[in-house]
UniProtKB/TrEMBL annotation, chains A, B:
This is Alanine--glyoxylate aminotransferase. InterPro entries: Aminotrans_V_dom, Aminotrans_V_PyrdxlP_BS, PyrdxlP-dep_Trfase, PyrdxlP-dep_Trfase_major, PyrdxlP-dep_Trfase_small, SP_NH2Trfase/AEP_transaminase. It comes from the Bacteria. It comes from Pelagibaculum spongiae. The keyword Transferase applies.
Length: 377, 377
């Protein structure tokens, strides 16, 4: 066997630590993507994803590619050229939404917020009142680049009042913080497998409600992607649900990754969704207290802080890259670099999924303490 | 552990049997997608893919999604709206190329061939002579829906003479039959991980030469996909090659699937590319003789037959679905149904990668013989 990778503790912005059960599931023998046993597993994954998203949406599934493709699935299907989209930007992933809109021929209306702050519903309301042509409101629930949580419900309420659809990024949110797709009335939502679900990277759970599907069915332009066209993907994921019957071939599903996602969702269900949120919150409290005891400063205000992604200000005089390198090489501990406005200014310490546990906090705090002391001596 | 899938022998059109070494590699502990160890592994994967494709193209890598996304990567980057594309269709996957062209605003010139026949270079030449505006020639090397091999070299020669780029589908070809990307002058080529490479489904190896890259760099319209935009993907896969240095973050790579791809490519290299082609040819001969001895007819003429995918005419009076169900349930053997023009008329028996071995042929011939006898009695 060649090139066995190091065993790391993953406390960056994702991928996060993966439970050995999930890795074992991943390595089960591959079966055909149209095998009745696999079709039955897809049905189970849909049911479990609905649980995780808190939705009854039939069109809830995993896109066969990373979160970026989940984002693109939303924009490429829901938006037509010429559609006006309000894009709320408070970090890297809001900017990426804007990239999607402009590349696909949408007309963006950009609402920018300072990095480290949440999307302000009052500003969203102003923008919607100022422009009645806006058809879609796009925003990030859990901004992975800043560690900020924006509150989806008031934004979704406003969008509906103004007859707009919402596209919501919760790549880092799903399983880690409260999310209530149906209760909050979110229309199109995408996530990633490799964050708080503790699954391998490469899949993007998505869910679409009837309003979103109606918009897709009313399209006048073809979806500019065959691979991501939901009207085709639906035939593969939804046909004859629960019957284990034959489905239309679309593409070859990443069978083994679906095994892993299933196992991670079973584990989430066993723990209980609310318990998982609670665990992330509790581990965050503990980490935050420990970091503050070391004299470190958390950048994001505690009222809008994501428990699963902690932005820590790099102390004066500490070399960012050298510090992270030491953590990686000496302790096999990965923490994340800052992105965008926070590059070189902050570390991103993730507590996602299986990584949000007591032993990781001890390792992380201990390694940081020792490394800071060494670098300062 | 929940829901352990059956252990199948995969002799359909893919996914194919996966060597246990590849499954073990898949289950190695996940590391970060920017970890120096992972970056070094990506470099190894690029070198091994160049070996498999027979190319020196620096831009040789794996798209983080199935073969359909590899196809889309080629069209979405190389073709601009208004570009005229000669699409050669002799099966399902040529039709899918046409879908890509039309959805992305290209102008297709369609050249259709009967299912079960190869792309005829003489017809390609006629079409290119008849329309000097054609900018791209798209065709399938190994048509998975019909089991037909088209000869890429004369088509590529003609394309170059007429100042056209080629986009070539060899999803089922790579590793199973002769392929010489540089020697044949192919410009943009895509494949899949789950066919003759015996890797898990979910990745699409691709390679682009300088002519293809020049076309991408000369674009006047933005690539309508952020996820598949090669100018961005390149920054992640190519920056500072060989240095193990830092790369630009684009998306979170499917780390574990890359472990598996690496292992399958190491195995291909160890066997030797030409030896792998030879093994597929030899196993095909043996299977074909065995099937003919059972009175079964191979549909595709032996001169253009893909050894790794055998179209077998369903004998009169045999119920297609019941027959395949029996193979699956009694022998855990998957063979493929016919697609498109061959639906209900043919079976597709794959001998791809690790599935192309003596024990599989014995199982397949034995199970078919017994099942035919039972159904006829």
């Amino acid at each position: 066997m060649s090139d066995y990778p190091a065993v790391r503790t993953l406390m960056g912005p994702g991928p996060s630590d993966i439970h050995p059960r999930v890795l074992q599931a991943l390595a089960r023998p591959t079966i055909g993507h149209l095998d009745p046993q696999f079709v039955a597993l897809m049905d189970k994954v849909k049911v479990l994803l609905r649980y995780a998203f808190k939705t009854e949406n039939p069109l809830t599934m995993a896109v066969s590619a990373p979160g970026s493709a989940g984002m693109e699935t939303c924009f490429t299907n829901l938006m037509e050229p010429g559609d006006k989209v309000l894009v709320c930007i408070n970090g890297v992933f809001g900017k990426r939404m804007l990239e999607n809109v402009t590349r696909l021929g949408g007309i963006p209306v950009v609402l920018e917020f300072p990095w480290g702050e949440a999307v302000d519903p009052a500003k969203v309301e102003q923008a919607l009142k100022a422009d009645s042509e806006i058809a879609i409101v796009a925003f990030v629930h859990a901004e992975t680049s800043t560690g900020v949580c924006s509150d989806p419900k008031p934004i979704a309420d406003l969008a509906r009042q103004h007859d707009c659809l919402t596209i919501v990024d919760t790549v880092t949110g799903l399983g880690g913080i409260e999310l209530d797709v149906d209760g909050w009335g979110l229309d199109a939502v995408y996530s990633g497998s490799q964050k708080c679900l503790s699954c391998v990277p490469g899949l993007s759970p998505v869910t679409f409600n009837d309003r979103a599907i109606a918009k897709i069915k009313a399209r006048t332009h073809p979806v500019p992607s065959w691979f991501l066209d939901l009207t085709l993907v639906m035939d593969y994921w939804l046909d004859s649900e629960g019957t284990g019957g034959k489905r239309a071939y679309h593409h070859t599903a990443p069978v083994n990754s679906i095994y892993a996602l299933h196992e991670s969702l079973v584990m989430l269900k066993n723990e209980g969704l609310e318990n998982s949120w609670q665990r992330h919150a509790a581990m965050h409290q503990k980490l935050a207290q420990g970091l503050e005891a070391l004299g470190l400063e958390l950048i994001v205000d505690s009222s809008i802080r994501l428990p699963q992604l902690n932005l820590v200000k790099i102390p004066e005089g500490i070399d960012d890259a050298a510090f992270r390198k030491q953590l990686l090489e000496k302790y096999n501990l990965e923490i994340g670099a800052g992105l965008g406005a926070f590059a070189g200014k902050a570390w991103r310490i993730g507590l996602m999924g299986y990584a949000a546990r007591e032993e990781n906090i001890q390792l992380c705090l201990g390694a940081i303490k020792e490394t800071l002391a060494e670098m300062r001596s």
